[in-house]
Fold this protein.
Amino acid sequence: MVETRREAAPEDGVLTRIGQAIMLHRGGDREEARNRLSALWQEIGPHGDAFHRCTLAHYMADTQDDPRDELDWDLRALEAAEGFVTERPAGSAATPGESRVADGPGPRHPLVALRAFFPSLHLNIAADYAALDRTADARAQLRRARVSVNALADGEYRQGLRDAIERLQLRIDRAAGHTP
């Protein structure tokens, strides 16, 4: 009898290290989390895996003290995600319903994983703009967040994002003197 074994996917050390930094941040050690994420950002480089760059920048933004720095990191996360989604090598266009994966060296990540970041990225950028009193930019990002959240499957993540979008919208409206 021949036994077939499924090979386990190789551990993604970068995502593990990002996760460790996130745990440090959530545990209250913001500076150490920022230091580790910064070192990892340097290691990955500007041409590293798009999913890694997006994830890292997304969480690096949360460790920033200055709202302008937070915005810069959130924009880097969005750039990494958008760059992968829109810039495919010639002849590699996905067919409808196809689950694309990140090309290049290193681990493969489903395109859907990057797309799932979009509502959160736009929401975070909207919050950054709101913190910087850039209301028009904040509202534009909220519109993008609403559109992209509709592409997600129903569930807690989608509903949580919808609720967060509405809370930020209310906060922006109140700050601008509009009452719903």
The first helix runs from residue 13 to 26.
